[in-house]
Every structure is written in C-alpha cells, then in structure tokens.
Amino acid sequence: MKKISRNFLAVFFSDGITRIIGFAATVYIARLLAVEGFGLINFGLAFISYALLFANPGLTVIGAREVAKDASDRRYIEEILGLRLFLAAVIFIIFFAGTFLISDESMTKQVILLYSVTLFPFAVLLEFVFQGREEMAYIGVSRILQYAVYLIGLLIFVKSTRDILFVPFSFVLGYAASALFLFVIYVRKYRSFRFRFSFSQWRVILTASIPVGLAIIFNQVTISLPPIVLGLFKTNYDVGIFSAAYKVVFTLLIIERVFYYVFFPVLSRQYAENPEKLKSNFSFLTRFLFALTIPLSLGGLMLAPGIIHIIFGQAFHDASNVLRVLLLYFMIVPINTIYGYGLIAIDREKQFFRIITITAVISAVLIFLLGLKFGFYGAALALLISESLSIFLMHRALKRVVPFESIRYALKPLGASIVMVVVLYLVQPWHLFTAIIAGICAYLAVFYLIRGFSVQDLKNIRHMFRIG
Predict the structure, then answer these.
(1) What is the DSSP letter of 260?
(2) What is the mean pLDDT of residues 153-179?
(3) Directed axis angle between helix 278-312 and helix 264-273, to 10°?
(4) Sign (positive/negative) of CA torsion 173, 178, 183, 188?
C-alpha cells in the first residue's frame, strides 16, 4: 500500500476512534455532572483551547514543513521545542494571574488552572516531527492513547459532581501519555532529545510562523468564543446546551481533519509539479464533500431531537434546535477547508490570512451580539453566518486562480437528500438507529440512480492516492 494511502487510513481511523472515545467521555461527563457541571467543564476547555493556540503560533506547521525538507536536522526541531516550552511557561503564568480577574468562584479558578497544566505536555508533543516525516501511524497511536487515558481517568476518578476537578486532571494525564509515547519513538529514531534556547533563532522561526499562526488563532478563537461569552454573560446552563450540540458536530468534522492531514500536501505538490490538474481535483473534492455533508446535515435536521435525547438525555432537550443550526454550519465547514487550504497550497497565504481576519472579527461581533440577545441559539447562528461569509470569500479568491466547477455539484446530493428527508419523515415512529439506516439506504439508492458519481470521479479518487 502506498504511503499516502497508509497515512489516509491512519488519520481516518485514528481520528474516528479518538472522536468516539472523546464522545463517550463527553457523554459520561454530561450525564454525571448535569448541565451546570458540564457547562463549567466546557468553560474551562474553552480557555485551554486559547492557551494551546497561543503556545503554538504556527510553529508546528512550519516545523512539519522543515522536517519534510530534512528529517535528519535535529537542530531545528530542538529550537522549536525550546521555543514552545518557553511560550508554555509564559502563558501559564499569564493564565495563573488571569484567573483572579475572571471569576470569584474558587471551583472555576481551579478548573481553569488544572486545564492550564496541559500547556507543558503539549509543548513537548512531537506530532509535527512525524507529520513532516509522513509517519502518521505514530500520530494516530499517540492520539488514541491520549483519549483512552483520558476516558480511563474519568471512569476511575469521576463518580459524582464532587469529583469535577478530576476531569481536567484526566485531560492533562491523556496529553502526558501521548507526549511520552512520541518522545520514546523520537529518541529511538534520533538517539537524542534536547531543548535549544536560542533567542536569535527563535526570532527567525516566529517571523515565518506567525502569519500562519495568526490565521489559525483567529479561526479557532471564534470557534471557542461561544462557551466563553455564554459562560461570562449567561449561565452554565447556556454553555452546557450549546456545547452538547457542538460536540455532535465536532464529531462529524473528522472529514475536515482528514483533508488537512492528507489532501493538503497532495494539492501543494500538484501546484508545484502539475498545476493543470488542480482544477479537476478541486471540482472532485467539492463534489465528494457535498455528497457527504448535505445528507448528514439535512438528515440531522430531521433527527436532531432523537440524537440529543439518546446521547445526552432529556435534560438537554433545548440542544435539539441548536444542533439543527450547527448542522447547517457543518454542511459548509469542510468545503471551506478545501478552499482555505487550497489558497495556501497555491501560495496565496496573504489572501487566506486576510479573509480569516475579516470573518473572525465579524464572527466575534456576532457571537457577542447574538449570544447576549438570544443565548445559545444566537451563538450557533453567529457561527453559521460567519462561516457562510468565509466560504463565499474563500471560493471567490480561489476561483480567480483555479477556475473550477463547484455550486452545481450540490444539486444531485441535494436532490437525493430531499428524498431521504421524506423517508425520515415517514419513519419518525421508528427507533432512531432504524430510521438512520432507512435514511442512508434511501439516499444511497437515489444518489446511485441519478449517477451522483461518474467514472471520472472514481479515477480522481485513485489519482488522489497516487504518489507522483
């Protein structure tokens, strides 16, 4: 099996397994800690997500690129590790001081501080080395280990609401296990491990990484902002309801991660070697993702109440309509990933950064305005509006360079999905899983009859997995 095929399978299956484990952990926490406790945990998670972003301003992206150029150059790896450790220490100190300004509640402070300890195992996480070496299987195993240790920690230590602090403790433990595993593999391959603290070289590294890092930070900030806004200005109940719905969508976004880790290098290589093929590949990827996201989104609109109830319980009933809004958001996120990373692949990083900046500012404003006005519904709607604007701008910028077909490829998946929705409406009294199977069968049957995929599409699939 070719390397890219192995990497695809490694990313797909490891991400699938980790999301299942993570989802099980989320359900366990939600059912055990109730809405308020679940909201507090997600409030703390939102803060650590910011901390990890600022502790890694594009460094792993640049690091993976440099390792791909010369996997034997340990010095660059060691300089990045030293810089990441330094940033982790600085950000931890800032968070420690900041907790005294955020909340007067002792439990909230403790949850945030415990999550902040994650900065240190994260600083020595060597994923970027193995991504650059195109050894994704190691990354896959490390992530499965991380989530497995996290879930085991929850099952062992968290038995009631009194054990809430063991949730962030288990989270840190999972990261530490992942970092340790990659550290052992790294030492076996490189025969050494050290940190380099070179301020002059750090300046060079940051100059290269910050534009990419800022774009990633701006994008992730908007995704993590709703729980913080709802936690600060609404209630933990609002945070819990929004987070429950978003966890379902987050699980579906495995599609987005697979594209980034596997297809982005392919498109980048094609732009350098044979840019004429980009047109057909962008068209195919658009068609392929529409065929996945449209039925998942429209089917989810019909089944949202049942999905929420069977996963989180009746107490999270209000999350059903939030999930419906976020499923429309999900329908365009993977497509937007194609266009965004497509711009980077064709050396249009500045346009990518500009679009991300514009949409991030608009998204932040909308999250505050709509979140304060309409609570969890407003926060979900803000993400949908800003993502819609982003995909419009990314699509327009990309097509100026690579004129490919896009919108019309949504018609056949949409037609098949409408038939599926009718079937789901008719089988509403059925059990949720039986209804899902009926919906899938209806969609696939209609999609096949209307020839949703052509022979050329199948050829494109084979091409995407071919090493040049």
Answers:
(1) I
(2) 89
(3) 170
(4) positive
